[in-house]
Amino acid sequence: MFCTQCGLELRAEDRFCSRCGKRTETAATEAACRPLLLDKENKKIAGVCAGFARYFDMDVSLMRVIWLAVGLTAGVGFLAYLAAWIIVPSDRTRRAPEAFAPHARAY
Ligand SMILES: [Zn+2]
After folding, report:
1. Which of 45, 47, 78, 93 supports an S-S bond with 38, CB 3.0-4.6 Å?
2. Model-wide pTM > 0.85
3. What distance in angstroms lies between residue 24's CA and the mean position of ligand 1's atoms?
């Protein structure tokens, strides 16, 4: 496997290019099939923000700020939060394989 940006040869298990930092296909595939689950290990309330942050590969604090901003301005944020809480399955009941959450430890 070669980096699509700089052409450096990479190992199959590499998630990022060691030279230019570009995501490899391995990381892209993982991101594509990562399930949206409530993150019960990093939760503040229900794990909705942490779950969405993991799903979108974003910082969990930034995701909380976005949820709060939407909730305060549009008023639908809290309803959306409750809906997500009910709809999105918990990672406690359906344990995500560790390979699908390689960044969870960083939070
Ligand atoms: Zn590269």
Report:
1. 47
2. no
3. 9
- What letter does residue 80 receive in the DSSP assignment? H
> What amino acid occupies position 76?
V
Query: Distance from the CA of 60 to the center of ligand 1, in angstroms?
Result: 27
Q: How many angstroms does the Cα of residue 18 sit away from the middle of ligand 1?
A: 7
Distance 92 CA to ligand 1 centre (A): 36
Looking up tokens 């450096």 gives 8
Give me the tens of pLDDT residue by residue for the chain, a chain 107 residues long.
888 899 999 888 888 899 999 888 877 776 667 777 877 777 877 777 887 888 888 888 888 888 778 877 776 777 777 888 888 888 876 555 555 555 555 45
Residue 102 alpha carbon to ligand 1 centre in Å? 20
